[in-house]
Amino acid sequence: MVPTNHYLMLSAVLFLIGVAGVLTRRNAIIVLMCVELMLNAVNLSFLAFARALGDMGGHVFVFVVIAVAAAEAAVGLAILLAVFRNKQTVNIDELNLMRW
Amino acid sequence: MEHATSIDLVRWIVAAPLAGAILNGLFGRRMNRNGERLIALVGCGSVAVSFALALAVVARLLSLPAESRLLVDSVYTWIQVGALRADVAFAVDPLSAVMLLVVTGVGFLIHVYSVGYMQRDAGFWRYFTYLNLFMFSMLLLVLGDNLLLVFVGWEGVGLCSYLLIGFWYEDPEKASAGKKAFVVNRVGDFGFLLGIFLLFWSLAQTGEPTLHFAEIAARVGTLADRTVSFTLPFAGVQTWGLLTAIGLLLFVGAVGKSAQIPLHVWLPDAMAGPTPVSALIHAATMVTAGVYMVARMHFLYDLAPGALQTIAVIGAATAMFAATMGLAQTDIKKVLAYSTVSQLGYMFLACGVGAYPAAIFHLMTHACFKGLLFLGSGSVIHGMGGEQDMRRMGGLAKLMPITTWTFLVATLTISGIPPLAGFFSKDEILFEAVRASTVLWAVGAATAFLTAFYMFRLFFLTFTGDSRADADTKHHIHESPAVMWAPLAILAVLSATAGLIGWPEALGGSLVGGNHFHHFLEPVFGAHGAVTAHAPEDAGLSELSMAAVSVAIALLGIALAWLVYSKAKGMIPMVLAMKSRAFEFLMRTVSNKYYVDELYDLAIVRPIHAVSETVLFRLVDVRIIDGLVNGVADFVEGTAMNVIRRLQTGVAQAYALAMTAGMVAVILYITLH
Amino acid sequence: MEQAVFYVFAAIALGSSLAMVVQRNPVAAAMNLVLTMFSLAALFVLLQAHFLAVIQLLVYAGAVMVLFLFVIMFLNLTEDQMMPGRRSILHVAGVALAIYALFQLRALIQRTPPVSAKPVDAAFGTTKAIGRLLFSDYLLPFEITSVLILAAIVGAVVLAKRRLD
Inter-chain contact A100–B645, Cβ cutoff 8 Å? Predict the structure, then answer.
């Protein structure tokens, strides 16, 4: 039996790798993928706790998270498409219209 | 007064005009468009109700035996805070009964008159609202049974006076006159308030403090020996009798309200208001509030002879002073205004020598004949299409007969010709004065001479001789409508006959059953000024001789006026005689009202303006307050502009970084706890 | 036995996620992410979340990542060029924060007392069990999620539509 803390540790590491990716990468699509990575890490954490506590509420949560992540990826990519059509780039540094 | 009968009727006397004011105030503008009848009905009707109820109440009062003539109507407990208790309660004793009848009766006649005078004025509804509001305040003043309620009425009449003087507010001069009246009144009110405070505080030192008249009357004896010390800037520490100080402070309020020296300056300017207003407020009722107050507080003044002396002196001086100014005025209303100031001086003179019934008697007759004089002048102005300068009048007797004859009755009355009312009241004052001090009598008698002179000057210039008006105006001269001359007629009858109830016994008063007026007021004032207290023969002789002297003086004045102003030919030599330099200087000084207004302007108004402008405005308001407020705004703007704005870089990753930092902080917090 | 499986798949997950974050080529990054998801699915199975493991493969790896690849191909993106002077303070700060957070979380996790797994029956993690929960206790979130997906569909279609001018 693998101790729960191992899963949690793995989840934390994956999550923080995702954070580093979000803060570092320039390509918007890669950033979105890092966000997906973060969500996956969270899913792992949920399931670890569900298994430890014997409560399937965690499973339902993960179900909903997956659905939300899918929806978010779809909309995010659609926005990216629209932006690309206008600015011909997905470089985050150049998408700064909300600047003062 | 040990026995007091309770009665519920009195509150409606006060409430009716208030209801009228509210109705006209809220709905008047709309009603104005559909015709003035409804507004007039509400306005006059409410006062008619008051008058009818007043008659009923006084009838009830008369049905009681003389010692227990006191009707009380306690409406509700208004203030009860610690030791201070003041109720909304009304008390009707003989003194307030007289005032009540004067206020509601003359008030009603003037309301009716106003319907005609203010016809087709755009502010018709506003006028009646204010006038009803004034009636309400005046009734509060006259019927209130404690100093606080009286003060509320006191302030209320001051407010309505301001509103009505500046009624045609689009003219800045008229608005300014209203402001002047209010401000000068305020100065008086300040003294009045100090008097109330001092009284309350002193009563608190010796037991339960109170502002109720009856209770003050019972307790005032205990304050008779006390003194109060205060420090004046250049005169060091002064110690005065307590009651004298209170009396003088309260009198300051009366000086302001009744336009005595030195606070008389507002009354002539108040003539800017509509003439019925001048009749009601500045002749019959509001200005008499000061006299009423002194009479009401007589129990205090009787124990403060120093205050009474001051009152008498100021009253006499004002009477004389104002009469001289009335000589030189050319505006018909201004002459009457100075005449009012002068007659009020007489009333205070009477109070000052302790003859309170005489003062109230003169107050009553004055309300009748001065009201009549003002309404008559209004009729003249109305007929002349707005002309108020007497130099352009003349010869109105044939064209406005009713006005002329009623005016003549009033002029004869005020000059003191028997058996008209003015003779009885003025003569009584002079008689009481001579018993107290010959100097005072001399001043009063000289004033009586001047009064006869300038009043008949007014009469001759306005009504007799040839018309000096231009052709246009002459065309339009007409007698006033019935709604205007009917009150004139009623007041004329009153001015002629009202004196009969005060016929002194010494002059054959027993023919009409004695001096009814005095007997009526006896429960209030005790044996004061009871002319009948002396042995009949002595009293009879000196009263008769005094009366003869008064009549002689009056006739002299009339004769002189006739000589100067009536016979056109007679005017020329007199005018020539007046060419000497000294006389011219005198005339100029008098016609400029002794430059009192200019003095006040220089000594008080300008310094206050200067301080307000340079110190309070430029320094405090602009530099300090605005600087602070603007400074705060500038600081916030600077911070937002230069600091907070730069955080919005537009780069999403920067925001993500901030979020991450927050997340780390939260983890840290959880770890450390 | 179970431990060995865990370590293997954990290692794969870590490796591929690191690779994804540092990859320049977007397509390569996407494939790495797919590999991460696969290994995570295996871990899900270890945790007896059978249904969700399959869902992960079908929906996440199968649909979402395919969508990513479509968009990458569609936009015809080239290699993500690292511009000179790219290592701004933001990036250093970002990575530093992440590493610091890692240590903190490690401390946190180590502090929590080890939870011994409760014995669970065979029905744990099966389709039937989740289905029962979704349609009873968690009915409202379920319905709302469907509305959410509807909104996302409409939004995506509207946003990505080519303008007709």
Answer: yes
